[in-house]
Design brief:
alpha/beta; two-stranded antiparallel ribbon; Phosphatase; Rossmann fold; nine-stranded mixed β-sheet; 17% strand
Length: 266
């Protein structure tokens, strides 16, 4: 287990996010961002991340406007290639909103489910928050056994649900693994979670099913930001979701836990 990171103040965290490229000048190029916005607007459900967006976001420029407002990408529609950005101030603002949701969950002793489609980058972020909520008295939910989705198995490691295929933890934006979990809970006669803490299709699916959900998303994955704008998701935190060293997320996690009044556990 990693040693808990010291808690940075806001200015220190903003500086860290920019230096590690979790925010600021991120690795995802502008061309990739615009391509994904266009595909979402054209109705490609792969980019809807489990949300039902209907015909509400058929204009690529409307998607870009939300992403500029909530993620901090460059708002100029004529900027077609090269560098794009995530505003680190918006990242910290979203962490503060997420902390308020986590604090409320702790106060109400909620049932909380954690899941990730980015195990290489975000598993320890989720694990640390789960440990903090458990210490505060929340029930960290166990998923049903034997679940399958997307030609793989949905299982739980360190309190975090994820997809495994071919003995490998799988990077997936699909909502199907979360669908399998929620359907499995209903089939087993167990209650659904009060809160889902996840990312990408895992968070989108939960929010679409009417469960309070908070998630992380990169600047090339606009659906969760649209979901927050529409009120389907409670919070979407903008960040690069797979930087070169997963330990770079530790100061962000420490900040989040401290803001939520949760204890950081090793």
């Amino acid at each position: 287990m990693p040693i808990p990171s010291p808690v940075p103040d806001r200015a220190e965290l903003v500086d860290h996010l920019v230096r590690t490229r979790i925010a600021g000048n991120v690795a995802t190029p502008r061309e990739n961002n615009l391509s994904h916005y266009r595909k979402l607007a054209n109705g490609d459900r792969h980019f809807w991340l489990g949300l039902e967006l209907g015909d509400r976001w058929r204009d690529e420029q409307d998607v870009l406007a939300v992403m500029a407002e909530r993620c901090g990408v460059i708002d100029d529609p004529e900027h077609r290639t090269g560098q794009d950005t995530i505003d680190p101030e918006l990242t910290v603002d979203a962490l503060d909103r997420k902390a308020a949701v986590l604090r409320k969950a702790a106060e109400s002793q909620s049932r909380v489910l954690f899941a990730t489609g980015h195990p290489g980058g975000l598993i320890d972020v989720h694990r640390s928050v789960a440990a903090g909520l458990r210490a505060a008295g929340c029930e960290i939910m166990e998923i049903p056994g034997g679940l399958q989705a997307d030609e793989g198995f949905v299982f739980q490691f360190a309190d975090v649900a994820m997809l495994e295929r071919g003995a490998t933890l799988w990077h997936t934006h699909s909502p199907e693994p979360m669908t399998a979990i929620l359907d499995g809970l209903v089939r087993d006669g167990r209650p659904l979670p009060d809160l889902v803490v996840a990312d990408h299709g895992w968070a989108g699916c939960a929010g679409q099913r009417g469960i309070d959900a908070v998630g992380y998303a990169d600047c090339n994955d606009p659906a969760l930001f649209l979901g927050e704008a529409e009120g389907t998701l409670a919070v979407t935190v903008p960040l690069d979701d797979h930087v070169t060293n997963p330990r770079f997320y530790d100061p962000m996690t420490a900040y989040l836990l401290d803001a939520a009044d949760l204890v950081a556990l090793p």
